[in-house]
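Two proteins were folded this term; both appear here.
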Amino acid sequence: MKRRYAPGHQYPKKKDPVVRVRPNADGMLQKVFASIGVPAKKEFVPDSFQLKALEAVKNADCLVTAPTGSGKTWIAEQAIAGILEKGGKAWYASPLKALSNSKYHDFLTIFGPENVGILTGDRKENPDARIMVGTTEILRNQLYDAMHLGVTLSTDFVILDEAHFLGDEERGVVWEEIMIYLPSRIPLLMLSATIGNAGQIASWLASIRKRECIVVAETKRPVPLFPLFLHPSGLLLPLLSETTHGDGPRLSKKIAEYVKGRKSRSLFDSRRLPPFGEILNVLKKYDLLPAIFFLKSRADCDASLDLCARHAISDFHRVELKARIDELAKSTPHIHLHRQIDKIESLAVASHHSGQLPSWKLLVEKLMTEGLLDAVFATSTVAAGVNFPARTVVFLNSDRYNGKEFLPLSSTEFHQMTGRAGRRGMDNIGFAVAIPGRFLDLRLVAKLIDSPPLDIPSQIRINFSMALNLLLSHSPSQIEDLLTKSFAAFLLRKKNQAKKQTGKRSSLLWEDFKNHFNFLIETGFVKESGELTGDGIWASQLRVDQPLIIAEGFRLGVFPRSDPVLLAAVIASFVNEKESDDRIDKRFMPGKLISAFLSVKKELMPFAKLMFDRGFDVRPLFLRSSAAIYAWAAGEPWEKAVLISEMDEGNLAMLILRTADNLRHIRSLAKVFPEASRTAAKAIDLILRDPVVPFDYPVIQPDKEEDEEASFKRGHKV
């Protein structure tokens, strides 16, 4: 059913029928519930797929696809240990800073602090360590630098965690670039959730890297999953029939009758959220906690906490929770001011979504991982990349909002969510509970349970940052050859072969590159010969979303170069992607900010129009984001910055972190714009403070004794 509203929509208030939720369970579940418990402690024995992967990476690249929680990280740890024994170095890359930070701390314990470093853009520790942990963007940028300087990446082994991000619409291009640029002498281990075309990806990699790529696939869940249905009366029922038909699992008879014969609306079928406190009591009675509830919107996640009042926890649990929160909040005092702190401490429930501060989400993740929370109400984003296990996951919807519209859950999305059900070493069995409602298609859920994972497509696309960085080290003809190595080109060749077509290989990527190339020539960043001009060389270091228009701002001298508060505010307008209402209270609009913002907008208008006329996207600049960052950089309280921004706290924190990332790239231009570089460094210090980052969070400081190029080259093999 297609929806006609967006997440966070306020529904009309209607009286719902009073439904008593009395915990009960179908007799058929007695045997299943008897298996609930903690597995007996036993000596760890690697699974066969783990051993097979370790053997594979000794002489080849390896792509491991396995369900969430199956032990892929163990493979990485053992492979790294083997590299260290041989005196080599390893690079571990993940898509998320939070995941990189988590792995960094794990590796510190396993391999010792002297052997482990981290690079995530806003964090830099022990950069010459034998084991480097970081984000994929940092690894890609190091490959750019290595190609430019004519050196090879200083590592002997690369691990790409969450490798299925290759198919991510926004960031998949980074994974594909790494796979294309990585020297074939460096073995590659890719760890992924289950994907449909692993063999195809391995064939592509083998064709471009000239070394075998072995696929190690594991389809069995480490903890079995049992699907349940919660009737509005409080009765738990098996969701699926014990028999299947040609299309796979089918709904059990009682559930099919419920779906077919449902006529009167119940509390669960209304547009309102169900009584979560009573639902938690049902799950608690049958030992199905802790649970993750997947909801459609941030607003629903937050509103759910108020519906948990009838869920009680013991005094001991309450004291234990508060003590742990106090300990975790030592470096982030702002946590004690969070509006949901009382709900966590008194009810052991929390919400988790991208609209929250990173420090708050980290607190919730740690408490859940340590078994101190009974329930978390989250959007589907928690399913990807975060170590966030539970005994049970609960579904209220079978669709997902992608930012534009509601679409049915894919098998990959569904398996990522259910992958959180059942904790290896902590649960004998995991559960997925379906709660009926207006937007839960039970037949779709039954189909998704055993549906195979989707194929991963190529998401490579040309952008100005890529074009500039490739031109640093390649001629246009070499770049044309490089683009034929893309996964997109490989897929097209296979398609043509299947159709027995012998036409020219796709030149779409090359045509797109030429469009970017011609514009760079037209605007003076590249010579006709294909070499970068002086402006092109320093502009290539702006590895941000809008490098060209920011570079033009520096060429025109329109950015404030000596005022760190003003520079941070102006740069923030290039980071914000979402349209905002720029009608702002004049009290929040200092005259010099308005003057600087309008000057930048006016001076860059001709260049922006030229980009638009040549068919390139140009984002509008919004004053509200600049006003919020100005207030925050000027030392105003967090609450005031949030008020001005009219954003959720998490969105404002992300705006600040991305602004800091842009400022770091400006800081790297010390040779060309020394004053702006120093000002950018000061601006970073002004905006990276609690509650955006904890007090004790180490951030990157500029190298005092050597520039970044010298530092990079010093640590890499020529």
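Next, the second protein.
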Amino acid sequence: MNGKRFWSLTLLFALITLPAFGQAGKFDNGKMWTFDYPPTEHITSTYGFTPDAAWFEKARLGALRLPNCTASFVSPYGLVMTNHHCARGSVAQVAMEGETLLDDGFMAADLADERPIPGLYVDQLIAIEDVTDEVFAALDGAETDAEKAAARQEAIAGAQARIEEGLGDGHVVQIINLYNGGRYSAYTFRRFDDMRLVMAPELQLGYFGGDTDNFTYPRYALDMTFLRVYVDDAPYEPDHYFEWSPTGLEEGDAVFVVGNPGSTLRLETVAQLEFRRDIQEKFLLEILNSRIAALEAYYDENPSDGLRNQIFGLKNAQKLYGGRVKGLNDPMIMAKRNDTEQTFLADLEAKYGGQLTTDVPQPYSTIISDLADIQSQKREYAAEYGAFLSFFPNSSLASPTMQRAAAALQLINARESGGNVATYENALRSVPAKDEGIDRRFFEARLRDFVMYMGEQGMLAEMDASAVTEAVWTGSALMDLENLDVAELTMDDPAIAALAPYMASYADFQSAFAGLAGQEQELNAQHGRARFEVYGTTRPPDATFSLRIADGVVASYEYNGSKAPPFTSFYGLYNRHVSHARSSDPTGEFQLPDRWLNAPASFDRSTPINFVSTNDIIGGNSGSPVLNKDLQVVGLVFDGNIESLPSAFIYQTEVARTVSVDARGMLESLDHVYDMDRVVLELTDHVLIPTEAEADAR
């Protein structure tokens, strides 16, 4: 066994050794390290090399943030790498009449063929300033939660304005909340808004396996897209970019993910997680299940691509929240979170050299119990929470007719009390429209929610949800907005009558929950400050869609009585295609385009396409570069496995994995399948092929 291989496997074993049952691990709160406090000592002790300031600067400046994902510079000529699913909307946006770029892919043969993407931009983090003291100073003298919230927002706006004043155009300042408000940093970004599409594979490759393979592994997806940044109508030449690795990876190799993870909840207390387990995430999963069932029933009668995509989107959320609920009901996870909490309280006592109740200052001494009390008060509104979840006009799960009925009810109440009727009429008429078949099914589903959570009331005490819905669709004035005379709306209208008994407590619920949310926000901030005072920067804060670096190793894992390989290859891609072609594949999720079925003999199907590692990621990390210790590109993050879904609450490495596209697979497909030689040369030899017009001029 060679030295590198022995070192890699030894490191791998050390990093995924299991803790005792219920005992918190050192990194349960994760490894999403900030660039404010780079983890130099951790990397040195874990991986045997010491990154210097220049290493972290290159990692920071090579990474980029899209509005919804992560990206990175991968050439000296502004070439940008991200996921296909992050750029899918842009691919469709630049399609010309008669083109089907999502299905066929896009390959710009010439620099001049790279297509501008209107409205798209990327942000590069160029400076970080700690403004914690500035924000905290503004809180002095504020007593109530409302006063604290107002003072905090004023201080944040002031810090932002102060920094922006010295910047030119093309820069953006954002105040980043770390440790739930324990620290505050001002991030200054340079914004690049001339983005052009260079290459995107077919949807069948970028999303190979579709919803069936989503959040799974082994995977065989080529989820990549290349863009380019232009400045003054010429390719931008960044000072920092990530070179392509000439060698690739082996199992056990250390890898680093630089990206913008969206949101984690690892600083939440056990009581907060229990509320999510029993009510918040549980009820959200139930409403997703209900609405997906309604859409699937409608799709069987009225199939369309748009409806199919809507179902896929909700099924993605269904898998996500299903995994979260499962994780929150895992006794191992909850025992470890409880151990983390008890250890924190003990460490808090140790910091102040005494007992929690007598020596630790307020509000730290009661922060855990105060947050638990908030959860108890929220539980008193569990029925209303379930009944009115996603009850607002712009929700994808809302019924427009139900929302109009709510506005109409407020209009009638305002008319009787002498209030502003026009406000509610505007709200009624501005509710976004939805396909009538979907609207009807969602209206009936909401009635069933009312009965499930709040019992049979009003019309629903006399008829079932289906019959009430029929009465609304055949007799409500709200079904004909063009001829609606709001002056004639009464409580007898069936849509309003069906809703009215349940709306009686809605306003009280909203007011109470908003007040509790404000209190909880302030307590979360105090909790974050307490954690930071105890642990400092040795533990990273929750994700906030701000730039982080996460370390890990390439590692297989056991699942379903078998072992998942660390790498998959193009052979597996073709096997998946053939296996499903022989059976039932009604959605075509596993079908390959002709270009791939007729790949040239030079195409090496043994090349790795995907791999798994133990890096700490979550939504927002899509499109993050995977780098080796020399900050060379070895992969591209695009997903997590199904076992990683509880990562919102806890970081684990036993079976949770990051799933990435292998850099070798990207290069092999660009070279031999897509005939993108100019991009290959740019990635490997740093050569920018001029446009044909420029070449002719020379």
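Residues 291 and 442 are 7 Å apart (CA to CA). The chain has a mean pLDDT of 93. These notes refer to the second protein only.
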